[in-house]
């Protein structure tokens, strides 16, 4: 394998074994992205079977917390002890959590098993990105962007459809069991054909740093999850979580300056491009998951679309994102140039969000589809380029933490996006309902600003019209905020320096990298790695 791969490095072609590995990696990536969307569709049935409605949110929160908190730790473990072992371990943990979740007998068990599943999921995405970073030189990596964007689009479109179909025909437990055959295929393929060098670093794991980072990330995710829903933003519980989170993260930064082998080496942030890509990734996550949340809600509540096919409602955005990502990847591979994509992508993303903010109760599906396509074109320029440039900005020994940090910032961005845009949306809907429908409007949205299709159909015509106007006002506020936040990505993109992407066996020269990006270039070539 090593000889074949080294030959491939020189020719720029990938041997069949590498293609098999890439297929296995895409399956693992699909598992990580598909799971929450399938389970989300099955949640009403799960609650009907297991009870525990009051703990419903924890089924998702436990998974999200475990995923976010474990992401940087998986990246560091891969750097220290070898990516293959870390990746296979994360698959096994994910499959174990899936099997146990499918066998859960009450809501408490399901929440605990979902946390185990989330621990494994934290290593899936990081492992995929880091192994691709090992196998494929940055100059060639652009060709695989379309594949990764396609997996993302497939998960978002197919997730609700597959989840609904599985739950209706096989039962909700199979929404977890379905992961097992796919995961086993990925595990066997990786085990058989992926050959990366085993590593053994003498330095000990930074347990204190890992603990502080876990506490800090968990506090942030809980604040963004609970704030404005479970607890008021100014409540004592939210203030306590904010205080704990800030203290833990400050302590984490201090510990990282002293640790022999830090979980998140702070020196990688000295590289301008890496830091800027982290900012852009955070903003992209902020915008994307806000759009995924509010676009189906608008189209169902205002435009009368069916909730059953909610994934298909996002097709204009996801299709445009897929096409642009493929084009960006091909252009990057052929030319080695990439700065134009973050700049153009940020502009399109901001414009697309502004256009979406102009939607009202009279906007047609064609018009909203065109607006979504503009947003998708922008995100397609950004989704994989951020990871590509971030990985190109660090040494090979830091590939795992670079991948995990970029993934973590995007995850945190999505948490903040859903929380802040959601709070703005809910506040606006409740205000408009109180203005237009009086006491009835306040009563309708007292517990939630989001009404399901059945509840909406039962409303009197006047109340229904008031709610549709309120939803369009809420989406206006949320998307307008998103367009303002997206301008921050444009500012960051302008300051990106176009450092030549490393080609097959052709690392950048130290002097060039120092002048271009204020950091030393990667010291290992792909041939040395594989």
From TrEMBL:
UniProtKB keywords: Cell membrane, Membrane, Transmembrane, Transmembrane helix, Transport
Chain intervals with Basic and acidic residues compositional bias: 521-530
Membrane topology: Multi-pass membrane protein
Region of interest (Disordered), residue spans: 507-530
Domain Major facilitator superfamily (MFS) profile intervals: 21-500
Matches recorded under PROSITE patterns: MFS
CDD domains in alphabetical order: MFS_Azr1_MDR_like (cd17502)
Main location: membrane
Compositional bias segments (type: Low complexity): 507-520
Regions that span the bilayer: 20-43, 55-74, 86-105, 111-132, 144-162, 174-195, 207-226, 238-255, 276-298, 310-328, 340-357, 369-389, 401-425, 477-496
Family: Belongs to the major facilitator superfamily. TCR/Tet family.
Protein known as: DHA2 family efflux MFS transporter permease subunit
């Amino acid at each position: 394998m090593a000889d074949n791969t080294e030959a491939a490095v020189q020719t720029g072609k990938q041997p069949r074994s590498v293609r098999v590995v890439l297929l296995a990696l895409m399956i693992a990536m699909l598992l990580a992205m598909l799971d929450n969307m399938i389970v989300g569709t099955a949640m009403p049935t799960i609650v009907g079977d297991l009870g525990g409605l009051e703990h419903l949110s924890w089924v998702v929160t436990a998974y999200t917390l475990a995923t976010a908190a474990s992401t940087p730790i998986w990246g560091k473990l891969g750097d220290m002890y070898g990516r293959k072992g870390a990746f296979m371990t994360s698959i096994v943990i994910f499959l174990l959590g899936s099997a146990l979740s499918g066998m859960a007998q009450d809501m408490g068990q399901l929440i605990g098993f979902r946390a185990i599943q989330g621990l494994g999921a934290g290593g899936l995405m990081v492992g995929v990105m880091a192994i691709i970073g090992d196998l494929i030189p940055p100059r060639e990596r652009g060709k695989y962007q379309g594949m990764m964007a396609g997996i993302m689009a497939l998960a978002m479109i197919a997730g609700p459809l597959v989840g609904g179909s599985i739950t209706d025909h096989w039962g909700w437990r199979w929404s977890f069991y379905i992961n097992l055959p796919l995961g086993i295929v990925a595990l066997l393929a990786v085990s058989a054909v992926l050959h990366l060098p085993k590593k053994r670093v003498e330095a000990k794991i930074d347990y204190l740093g890992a603990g502080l980072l876990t506490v800090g990330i968990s506090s942030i995710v809980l604040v963004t999850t609970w704030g404005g829903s479970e607890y008021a933003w100014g409540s004592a519980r939210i203030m306590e979580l904010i205080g704990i989170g800030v203290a833990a993260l400050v302590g984490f930064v201090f510990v990282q300056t002293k640790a022999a082998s830090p979980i998140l080496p702070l020196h990688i942030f000295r590289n301008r491009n890496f830091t800027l890509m982290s900012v852009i990734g955070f903003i992209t996550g902020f915008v994307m998951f806000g759009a995924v949340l509010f676009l189906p809600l608008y189209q169902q509540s205002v435009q009368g679309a069916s909730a059953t096919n909610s994934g298909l409602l996002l097709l204009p955005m996801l299709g445009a994102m897929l096409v642009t990502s493929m084009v960006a990847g091909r252009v990057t591979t052929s030319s080695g140039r990439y700065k134009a994509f973050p700049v153009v992508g940020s502009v399109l993303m901001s414009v697309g969000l502004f256009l979406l903010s102009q939607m009202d109760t009279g906007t047609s599906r064609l018009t909203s589809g065109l607006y979504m396509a503009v947003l998708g074109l922008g995100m397609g320029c950004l989704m994989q380029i951020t990871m590509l440039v971030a990985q190109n900005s660090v040494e090979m020994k830091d590939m795992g933490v670079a991948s995990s940090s970029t993934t973590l910032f995007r995850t945190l961005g999505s948490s903040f996006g859903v929380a802040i845009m959601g709070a703005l949306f809910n506040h606006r809907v409740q205000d408009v309902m109180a203005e237009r429908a009086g006491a009835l409007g306040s009563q309708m949205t007292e517990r939630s600003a989001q009404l399901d299709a059945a509840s909406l159909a039962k409303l009197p015509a006047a109340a229904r019209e008031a709610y549709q106007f309120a939803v369009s006002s809420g989406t206006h506020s949320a998307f307008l905020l998103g367009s303002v936040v997206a301008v921050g990505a444009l500012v960051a993109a302008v300051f990106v320096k176009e450092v030549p992407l490393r080609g097959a066996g052709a690392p950048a020269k130290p002097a060039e990298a120092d002048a271009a990006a204020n950091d030393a270039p990667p010291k290992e070539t792909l041939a040395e790695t594989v």
